[in-house]
Amino acid sequence: MQTLRLEVEVDRADRTHDDAMELSPQPGLVVRVDSVEEGHGFGISDLVVVVVTVSEDVASELVASAIIVAVAGVIRRVRGRAGKSDGSPKELRDLVELERGSDNTEGAAEKKS
Amino acid sequence: MSRRKMRLYVDWDAAWAEDAESLARLPEPNGDGTGLLPSTEEAIALVHYVFRSSIILDTRAGRRELLKMTEFSRLCKSLAVRAGADAGFLAEPPLPSWARSTVNGLRSYLRPTYPQVDEIKVVATLDNRLHVRSFHSRHEIQISVITRAVLRTMNLMIWNHVEMASREPDPRTSAYSGPQLVDVFGFTLPLYRDIPWNQAPFLRAAGPLAAQQAIIGTRIQMAYMLAHEFGHLLLHEESEERQDLEAEVDRFAYDLILRWLSSSGTGSGEVWWATRWLREHLAIERAIVWRLAGLTEAPPLDQSGRTEVLRPFARVAAPTIDVLVAGGAGLRLLRALREEVERMSPGSLRRVALEWHRARDEFFSGVVPSRIVPFWSTVRSDGGEDANATT
């Protein structure tokens, strides 16, 4: 299992986000909203930290879809340890792929230890 | 024989005027800032961009101004690299010049009624997002310094059009038919794409009026957002949620900035257009993000009637007819831009973003970009010349 930590900038128009949301759409994949930026913004985004625990046999496309559902809003940008993406499913999938393949991911660190 | 006047304008609000001197006194780090952690490189690029935005080139600027600008940009880069080597600056950048004067001004008006206003800390961030946010739990307001730079660019784009439209046709510029989405996109691309801010083009001014009005409008917009967040912290509890809460805070903010602006003798007549434009700028930015995220629907428009709150304050501010006409023209342009975004499919908007990304790559590899729009202006941090210098 790998663990990815992503900082997601979200436009939460309806502000009905469940801060403690956790999704497990299939075995080997858990997406958890770890924290949501506190405060009140004039701007139109909140920072949400998402932690993804994923096994090797789960496609990155599914991971990206689960993240989009979990954050319950329109994704503006996503930042991981290895790179960044905008909110499109394709770019997010590419970022997830990059994070999973990067030696810098927490998962890789865990594996090494 | 008198020398020709320099065709560039100084935006005294733009950067950290008070801190530039102390930064310049810091020892120069080895190298030019490359090879650092990506987050540090990004921060240096952003700081460079913000410092550099203190000067606005005129569209008719010639080689002399470009040389000055290149020299100035190098100085800004050097200051930014020093700032990047200063962990304290990166962790908690000082408030930019405009924010210091605005916060001090607003506090002085709030203090008699709300003495606790001095307990509210206002801090700057180098976040790459439009961001003004209040935190009840720590009595704090955060502002990202890039917010002002982006808003000034968007205001300048609209004022350029207003100024151009008021001129006699000029054979060099008559092809310009108003701002298009592609123009806006090019100048704000680092908000959406992985591009360092100091590689984004700078918008030139069509003339002194456009530059001056863009600066005034941005000052009002930033003051309004700060006043709004002061309102949240002073009027409400953190958990308070009411339908009319935002309108109440808006009223508070309008009243506060009008009193502040009236006393400084500048800009109170401009409050109505500046704040209306602000909402349109944010709506355009939001529409772009929704399309880039692949959504085909339009973001919901604010139907809460908050713009109505402004009316009595706008009357008190008594804008002149000229200001009303120009501000109204700008508002129509902004609405047209938003509708243009909303008409586009996610795929076509993404193509525009990629074209701009490619144009930037071409520019920095020494090729004349395939996409150059009127008012394109950039100065390479390594001293290279503006790709559009002679047009």
Main attributes?
heterodimer, A: 113 residues, alpha+beta, six-stranded antiparallel beta sheet, 38% strand, disordered C terminus, B: 391 residues, mainly alpha, three-stranded mixed beta sheet, two-stranded antiparallel sheet, 13 helices, 7 strands, globular
Description:
The complex is a heterodimer of chains A (113) and B (391). Chain A has helices at residues 60-71, 89-101, 106-112, and strands at 2-11, 22-26, 29-36, 40-41, 46-54, 74-79, 84-86. With 113 residues, chain A is of the alpha+beta class. Chain A has one domain. The radius of gyration of chain A is 13 Å and the shape is globular. Residues 103-113 of chain A have low confidence and may be disordered. Chain B is mainly α and 391 residues long. Chain B has one domain (92-377). Chain B has helices at residues 17-25, 38-52, 63-85, 87-91, 97-110, 145-165, 181-188, 208-235, 245-264, 271-292, 306-317, 321-343, 346-364; strands at 8-10, 55-57, 121-125, 132-135, 140-144, 202-203, 376-377. In chain B, a hairpin with a 4-residue loop joins β4 and β5 (140-144). In chain B, α2 packs across α3 (63-85), α6 packs across α12 and α10 (271-292) runs parallel beside α12 (321-343). The longest helix of chain B is centred in the middle third of the chain and has 28 residues, at 208-235. The radius of gyration of chain B is 21 Å and the shape is globular. Residues 373-377 and 379-391 of chain B have low confidence and may be disordered.
